[in-house]
Amino acid sequence: MTADNAAGGSNDNILLDEPTTADLRAKVTEAWREFAGALAALLPTLAAGGHIDVTLDPTASGTGTAVYSVSIRVLPDAVVEALAVGNAELPEGYRMDRAAVADMVALGWSPPGVLPDSGDSFGIRSSLEKAGALATSVTRTLRDVYGAPHPAFLVYLVHDEEDEPIETAPLGTARHEPSIGQVLHLDDLNGDGALTAALAGAAEEVVPLEERVRTVVATMSKTPVDQLQVDTDGDIGIRAGSAMVFVRVRDNPPLVDVFSPILTEVEPTEELYVKLSELTNRMPIGRLYCAQDTVWASIPVFGRNFQATHLMLAVQVMTGLADELDDRLHGEFGGKRFFGEGDKPTPAKQPTDDHRTGMYL
Known about the structure:
By secondary structure, the protein is of the alpha+beta class. Helix content is 31%, strand content 19%.
C-alpha cells in the first residue's frame, strides 16, 4: 500500500486534482465502483457453497510469485465468509508492512488465525444482507492494500459447491479466467508459484508479442502499423506535447515497458527525490524515479498472458502524465524537456552538507 503523503506547502496542488488528469482519476474511480457494485449484486445470488476467488494478476501487475488474492464463500444460513492473503503466504519482499496490516484491520478484517479455520489468512464473516459492505471492504483491500491499479488487473472465478464454474454477469472490468481452473483458490496458493505456472502453461500465443503490441499502439494512434515511429532500438515513439513516450518490448522475461524521459540534465537534489516520491503516490499507476541526471516515468506491462487493455491503460496514463509532469517539474527544478526548445540544463549546485537521501523509489 502507498501512503498518501501530504505535501509540505499549501500551494502544491495534488497531481490528480488538476484538469489534465482529473478525467483519468474519475474513470479509474468509477471502474472500482462498478466492480464493487457488481460484486455486491452477485453475492446474494449464490447458493450455499458458492464461492468467488479474485486475484491480482501477477503476470500483469509485476508481482511475480507473490499472489494477492481474496476468496469469498457463501455458507449456510445466509452467512458469507471472506479470506484474504496474509504475510505468511507472501514471499519476502512482497509482504505488507505494519501500516498495511493496520489498514486491513481498519477495513474489518480479523488478523490471521482469529477467524476459525482462517489459517494464515485475514478473515471476515458477515451476512448476505451486508453484501454491499463486504464488497466495499474487498474492493478497498484489492485497490488500497494489495495495490491493484485498476479492476482490469484482476482475474476472478465463480464456482458452486461442487467446484463447477458458474456463469455470472461480469464483475465490472475484471477478467473471468475459467481456463486456469482451481489454481486461484486461496488454499492452493501456498504452492511454489502455482498460479504463475498455470498461466505459463496456457495456450501458446500464435502472434508474436512485438506484433501484438504494435497493433495496439497503431490502433490507439489511428496510424497504420508500418507507419509507426520506431527507432533503431525497436522502441515505438509517441509524442505527447513537449514529452516523448516510448513503448519497448522485452523478451526475457516477456515485458512491455511504457516509459518517458521526463527531464534530462537535471540536478538530482533531495527536494527532487521527495517530489518524485510524492507524485508517484498520487499516480493511478506507474512510478517516477531519477537515474543520474534524468527523471524517468515508467509503467511495466507483463507480456505473458498479454492483455491489450493493460497496454492501452498504460499508454493512456503515460501520455497524459508525461506532458503534464515535464512542464511542472521543469518549472520547479529546471533541466531539459524532450521537445522543450530553448530549455537549458540546471547548473550544478556546489555541495555543502551531504543530506542526500538517495533513491526514494
